Amino acid sequence: MDAGDAMERGERAPLLPESHGPKVEGNSLDVPLLKGKKRAGSKAPAVVLGFECLESTAFSGISTNLVVYLETVLHGSNLASASKVTTWFGTSYLTPIFGAIIADTFLGNYNTIIVSLAVYLLGMMFVTFSAFLPTAAALGGSSVLGAQTVAFVGLYLVAVGSGGVRSSLLPFGAEQFDDGNATDRERKGSFFSWFYLCVDFGPIVSGLLIVWIQDNVSWGLGFGIATACIALAFGAFVLATPMYKRRVPTGTPLKRLSQVVVAACRKVALKVPADPGMLYEVSDKVDPQPKIAHTGEFSFLDKAAIVTASDFEEVTAEAGSSWKLCTVTQVEELKILLRLLPIWATSVIMSSAYAQMNTTFIQQGSVMNMSILSVPVPAASMGSFEVLCVLTWVLLYSKVIAPALSGLSSDGDGEPSQLQRMGAGRLLMALAMAASALVEMRRLGSAARGEEITIAWQLPQYFLLAGAEVFCYIAQLEFFYAEAPDAMKSTCTSLALLTIALGSYLSSLIYAVVAAFTATADSPGWICDDLNRGHLDYFFWAMAAMCTLNFVVYSGFAKNYKLKTVLS
């Protein structure tokens, strides 16, 4: 029996504990060291948006063409380079979790961004320097001062720095608005839309300009432009400090979840009572309150809220401080996260396929005729086309798909739910992998005849992959934010980003498995240095099959998922 059942019968709903939301320094959001100075808060969001344009350009200037740099300049193999890129991408999307914890617990968003930018800029400088250094082979086998060592030290500094920025910049921008002001509330809504467009700004600029410079002029100059972007962003962000509003870090909700698990394990021998008065919640005074008995999913965790004599003797005046007795609210927060886990796990599989855009898609395009209508198009620049496709899919959905589905509905409200949109994204990803396999089959057939096919053949797979991104990732962020407990909105949003990190790591693992099972003494394997001798099409078919199975499994989880709005 859950809170929704109790409300329908008129029973008293659980009282919520003391708010664990962010606190403001003093009675305002003023910066302590800048008291008395006039705040230009209306300009701060614009600075954040401009910062994101520069940061996304810098990151994309490194990442978009990275697999080609590792192969051509650092002389890595196709398989090893693809694996290193996906591992690095995974780390770049794993670090935001730690950045969010540091920002919420210790430094706050502003200080986390400043520290992260210093690390970020140092890493970008290392990557740029690596383009001017000799490789390990040129140094007689020593790699201590070689380009490889400097490049990878720089790349992982960038991963750490970008993670800190990525975890804090969007919430920091949202902090600049006053929710008590109607105009600011409207501007805040448009801010999120503009921020998403700024994220897409970087891949377009890097794909059209920086990648061309790297391929045709100089890798050092291309990386240098990206480094200059992050340096400019750093300087502008610091100079705009007087206009910022800043919040005080208030701690992490992870401790609250850990307390539930520990308390439930300590009371494993107890039976969840039918008497609601035996479950604990917090009101203005800390004492046991009559509560409903939660005997549905994960009922084992309800034991953490059972009141015993020893527990009550140790309860302090601060809500949520005990490792022996937890509130019903704490228990329900953990249950919500556990219900999200199956949906979250299928997103990891989805992300492993999405990672192919930065590795095998580029490798496939590199052995094609890299021109469209006689216009040279580097393989890595196809990522810019994917960004344009993302914007196209957004317009198609808002102007065509959603209105059409609403028109077909009898009540006029037939827009797909977040779960349905995520399912459509997973299905489109399977189609993108199948399209990639078909293109590779045609390319291999042409290569056998001594011919090259144009890179334009890759356009359909990028278009389908962009559709998968729009339907899955945008809906996923909305879904995790909507389903998250009120005190864990940022954490759950970071979990949505974590799927990209784990998907990249999974992709690296898949490459290793493919190499282990397909490379023999008589065969170079599916993914080899000479793709004309390999079978990249088999790899794409395997990914398509995995994505299809993932869609089927997800459909089962989504069908049985109980939305938070239904539960409470």
From TrEMBL:
Coiled-coil segments on the chain, per record: none
UniProt-annotated location(s): Membrane
Cross-referenced PANTHER family: OLIGOPEPTIDE TRANSPORTER-RELATED
Major subcellular location class: membrane
Protein name: Major facilitator superfamily (MFS) profile domain-containing protein
Keyword Transmembrane helix in record: yes
GO terms for cellular component: membrane
Signal peptide: none
Keywords for the protein's UniProt record, in alphabetical order: Membrane, Transmembrane, Transmembrane helix
GO MF: transmembrane transporter activity
Family, as annotated: Belongs to the major facilitator superfamily. Proton-dependent oligopeptide transporter (POT/PTR) (TC 2.A.17) family.
Ranges of biased composition (kind: Basic and acidic residues): 1-12
Domain of life (superkingdom): Eukaryota
Transmembrane regions: 46-68, 88-107, 114-133, 139-159, 194-213, 219-240, 336-355, 375-398, 494-518, 538-557
InterPro entries found in the cross-reference section: MFS_trans_sf, POT_fam
Pfam families in the record: PTR2
Region listing for Disordered, in residue ranges: 1-28
